Amino acid sequence: MNRGLLLGTVIAFGFFVVLARLAGLMLVDHDWLSAKASSQYLRERAIEVKRGGIYDRQGRELAVSLDAESLYCYRGEVARPRAVAREVSEATGMKYAGLLREMTGPGGRRFIWLRRKLTRGEAARLGNLKSVRGLGFTDEIRRYYPAGVLASQVLGYLNIDNKAMAGLERQYNSTLMNKGGEVVVERDATGKVLSEGVQMESAGGNIVLTIDEGLQYIAETALDEAMKKWKAQSASLIMMDPYTGAILAMAGRPTFNPNDPGDFGAGARKNRAITDLYEPGSVFKIVTGTAALESGIVTPDSLFDCHGGVFKVGGRTFHDVEKNGVLTFEQIIEKSSNVGTIQVALKLGPDRFHRYARLLGFGRATGIDLPWEAGGRLEYPRTDVSLASNAIGYGVAVTPLQILRAYSVIANGGYLVTPHVVSRITASDGQVISSFRCRAKRVLAPETAAVFKNILSLVTQKGGTAPAAAVAGNEVSGKTGTARLFDPRTGRYSDKYSSTFVGFVPASGPKIAMIVVFKAPEGAIYGGTVAGPVFSDVAAKALAYLHVPFDNAGLDRVGYLKGDGHAVIYTP
């Protein structure tokens, strides 16, 4: 009896212990055990989500993300490595010896990439390798730029791991980049995949630019032709709406193809229009000219003796290209007289000169929505010599974009605008997330801008420094600049020059403002000779592309070309 009672007590106690443990597992440790079980048969694998696209103002694709395959191998395990290396080499252009070494050579790494992000053609040619032991293909996402080199320095590029390296890709990376995603994979005890479900977060936004692919093509084609003619070290061209600051085209040479950025040097990938500082020469006379008019110390008819083109200031001698005598103020600008401009600047004084230079935006970045914009250099002129030098564009450092923005102040009636290349950001369904709001600050009286605009129109007429910049049927207001290039290696000015023309057209109602800059052209140096014809060519084609009619008074019927090249008749 005692034995039976004892046995029953033991069994009852055992059941109690088991029930207590089960209760503990179900009620106390349930969440912890559930998570541990899930971790054993569920795995999360990160996936790539497509990056947002970049489009021109008309909605044309400039940067898109495409599905791509990448080829890898396990070192030392590839069947028929010589045949595989030969086939991959023929399909991709890679070196046979290098491929064979990757597949068979010694090394600590077992996993080796043979070719990342194959093109469609390469993937098709290598399709029969998918059954080869030791080789494998995996899906990735490849950034593709349909227009190739077009606007490449503005767009920027990604490296092989889809990291944004430059341009808009870098500036708007947080907008464009994928926000990630995951694949939840269910496995059995042996690790075999039982089921797979995809959970993705939303992809990045799309960017719509102010740049027009057609205008960009016109600009880049003209730069290519001019670079062949003048054999310059580099060149920049920017076209902008002077009223809003919207960049219509921005081009530089040398350039690169963002689909293969590694094939080009750093100099080809940089956006010189906003990163390269230079002494601008006579285009900087806009500061002295507008400040003098605004301050009331000159009128267009004010007379100055230019002393035969030679003038001394503080022991330094300044020269004109021409042996000018007495000139009016407007003739000083028209003929780009250094001697006359210096006399006006000395009359103006350093305080007003420096203040108006700052008002026109010099000495600081413009705020354009692109990375690595240079701010320039604008020091207070503490001596008459430094004031004289600054007045004719020496001793200051600017970017082409800063010069263009200053001349847009004249074009738009006195407002300093903020240049920008992004018009709006949209979601994948086309909904507008944000858009650019024009910011402008009045820095000159409208009367000052109007008077100086008329003076600048003389520059492209007979007797001015840039008749080659004129556009048939539309009056151009603009200014030339020619300046010696400083050589930092010698600490002296070299025998090389920068050649600039900046202006806007039609003068009566500007539709575009544009600057063209060449560094170290060969065969000619003057801005009116080197940069002026490029301005004329691009402006004429751009106005036709934009369907802007001729502005010549007295013409009842004028012809112009549409963007598709077909002639039409415009009746005012």
Please tell me about this protein's structure:
The chain is an alpha+beta fold and 572 residues long. The protein has 2 domains: 46-209, Alpha-Beta Complex (Penicillin-binding protein 2a (Domain 2)), CATH 3.90.1310.10; 213-256 and 275-570, Beta-lactamase (3-Layer(aba) Sandwich). Helix content is 34%, strand content 24%. The chain is built from 20 helices and 23 strands. The strands form 7 sheets. Strands 2, 3, 4, 5, 8, 16 and 17 form a 7-stranded mixed beta sheet that branches. Helix 14 crosses helix 16 (384-391). The longest helix has 27 residues, at 2-28. The radius of gyration is 33 Å and the shape is elongated. The protein starts with a helix and ends with a strand. Mean pLDDT is 88; it is low at 41-46, 190-202 and 553-572.
Computed CA radius of gyration, to the nearest angstrom? 33 Å
Percent range for β-strand residues: 15-25%
Into how many domains do the coordinates divide? Answer: 2
Helix content: 25-40%
What is the annotated CATH architecture of the largest domain? 3-Layer(aba) Sandwich
Globally, the shape reads elongated
CATH level 1 name of the largest domain = Alpha Beta
The biggest sheet, with number of strands, parallel, antiparallel or mixed sense and barrel status, is: 7 strands, mixed
The CATH topology of the largest domain is what?
Beta-lactamase
> Helix segment count?
20
Structural class: alpha+beta
Distance between the termini: 124 Å
CATH homologous superfamily designation of the largest domain: DD-peptidase/beta-lactamase superfamily
The tally of beta strands, per DSSP, is: 23
| Global mean pLDDT | 88
List low-pLDDT spans.
41-46, 190-202, 553-572
